[in-house]
Amino acid sequence: MSRVDLAHVETWLFDLDNTLYPAECEFMALIEGRMTDFMERTKGLPRAEARAIQTRYYLEHGTTLAGLMAHHGIHPKAFLDEVHDVSMDRLTPDPALQAAVAALPGRRLVFTNGSMGHAERVLNHLGLAHLMEDVFAIETADYLPKPAMATFEKMVTRHALSSPVTAFFEDSEKNLAPAAQLGMTTVLVGAHAAASTADFVHHRTHDLAGFLTSARLKDIVR
After folding, report:
1. What is the pLDDT of residues 176-204, one digit of tens each?
2. How far does Cα 212 stand from its chain's mean position?
3. Which terminal residue of the chain, N or C, has fewer Cβ atoms less than 10 Å from its own Cβ?
């Protein structure tokens, strides 16, 4: 892994799901299954149709929840509480990632389309909660998900971020576009990252802990 120069970075902004843990553990598959259950039950749809609509809402609105709110008037808290009520057994704390995040100079924040309760559960389970200054969750965004620019701007304002010295780590390519537009350094995370050719993706890694550990950081000689 080549050494990346991140010596300018003072704020480290992390997506949560499939970023601070590997997508290969399929933890999100449990949540997606609960979303399908919710749509199948509340809308009286066959499962295949419920799943297709769920996917379409995600693609068109950024999250399934945003589509359900727009088209069906779903109450967000009931939905979020139900779909995030899943076992944590598939998530394994990663000591290497814990150490890499702890070594980062400056502020560390989480920016997620998930709920606050979900973020707190996952971060605590992964042993990362005490390393993060705050979480900007979907409730904080008034349920307008990434990649909406208004949500990015709200997050920047809320935490008084300076975009030129902020790095944003995400598994979703489309969610990096607004960050780059604002002037942040963007890092696409996951096994799929190497295949990305988007010019708004500045760095790519399949190994977040290794990427952070090998990077050149502010005021640290490595």
Report:
1. 999 999 999 999 999 999 999 999 999 99
2. 17
3. C
